[in-house]
Every structure is written in structure tokens, then in C-alpha cells.
Amino acid sequence: MQHDLPEPELWSLIYPFTGNRTSVNRTERGFDSDLTAVVECEEGPFFVKAMRNRQGGRRDSILRERAIASTVRPIAPALVWEAEDDDWIVLGYEVVSGRRADFTSALDLAVVAELINHLRTLPAPKVAQTWAENRWDRFTEPETTAQLFRGGTLLHTDIHPSNVMVGDGRSWLVDWSWPTLGAAFIDPACMVVQLISAGHTPTQAETWAAQCEGWAKADPAALDAFARATHRMWATRVEGRPDETWLGAMVSAAQEWTRYRGLT
């Protein structure tokens, strides 16, 4: 979504928080945003995420991210300021120093497990009570199986190497674009597919997941249902974007997981 720098109206909107800016360094992340950048400025620097204030899923996403910011503060960069007008919604975060996680590194994976376990302890705010996780529902058979995915645990649902920042003594989950409430095993289960895609065997991936309390306490039938639904979900997504190799890799990893669990 990011191309040229946004028009002057955006910079005027956030000027009270940034002061004069000296540079705008776009990030590699933020494909679903109109702007994600580190803005060097008088009052900063800040990591700035901006979205057009237009009705639809992308607007809903940034509103969720804004609403959840104070809750996830123990494991995420702090939201320092926010700005909104008829044209833009803008979030200004603290800039954290770190690198993207390496999912082949045992040390980094221990960090991810710690973050997921910490997330599980955070109480969901009242605003999140209507955020039931349902994106896997249409990929379940029978449909009643989707009830196995319900729960009251706050979920990130998009943990991958670029969304884990590993720092010196502290690490963060970033890009809270679509937090939901659901079964506690969902984030660890999504990580199983990520780990298989990164080169781990299914046995290794599930052994890692066992460090996560949500996975350890899960009903095996729920894990089976989620594995099936995840494979169908990725297979459906790749049908519309066959040239995106990363999607193909996720389909392969999900399929390998279902085979490992004796589901295909």
C-alpha cells in the first residue's frame, strides 16, 4: 500500500506530536497500511502507522490496534500518541531497538514462547469482548467444530519473524493489526505452521509449542480441527495469489502438519 509520501495534510495533523521532522524512513513491514515509517523529528523519533479514515476492514484493523495498545503494553511498544481527522487515523509508537526474530534459533524461539505465555495472562479489555476469533470457521467440517476455537484468551494471530522484535534484554510482539479473543492454543498452533515452514519437523514444532500453556492444555481434538482448518485456509488463499511463494510455503507446511497428525 505504501508508495509516495502522504500529502501534507497528514503531516499537519501529527505536527503537534512530532514537531518539525528531519526524515521519514519507511519500514519493510506494513503492507496493509498507507504509511509505516520511523519518523525522525523534534519530539521523537516515533514509529508512525497511518491509515486512511475510510469505512472497511483496514480502518477496523487500526482501530483495534489502537484500542488494544494499553493492554498489550507489557509485551509491545508503547503507543505514545494518536491522531485522527476525517481523512486519517495515525498511531505514534515508541521506537524500539531490536532485530526480527530468527525462527531457526532456539534462543529466539524461547523468546517467542515467553511472549505468548505472557500474552495469555493479559486480561482482555471490555472493548475486545465482541472480537471473537472466527476466521477459521468457514474452513471447518462440520461447522460446529468451530466452537472448539472459541475462548477468552487475547490473541495476536499473526506471529511471524517480522512481528517479533528481539532486543538486548527485552523483546516485543509488534503489528497488532487484528487481535481477537479465542482458544489459548491458537497462537501456538499458528506458530507450528511457521516453524515447519522455517525448516523444523512437525515433531520439533509441536515440541516447541508444548512450552506454551495454551497448547499444553488444549484438547487434541481441537488441535486436529485447527490443523485441518489451517490447511484449508492457506490452500484457499494461495488459489487467488499463486505467484506468491511464501503462501505456497505455508500451504506445504500446513499440509505437512496435517499428515503428521494423521489427518490426511
From TrEMBL:
Cited Pfam families: APH
Family matches, as InterPro entries: Aminoglycoside_PTrfase (IPR002575), Kinase-like_dom_sf (IPR011009)
SUPFAM superfamilies for the chain: Protein kinase-like (PK-like)
Domain named Aminoglycoside phosphotransferase: residues: 118-219
Annotated protein name in UniProt: Aminoglycoside phosphotransferase domain-containing protein
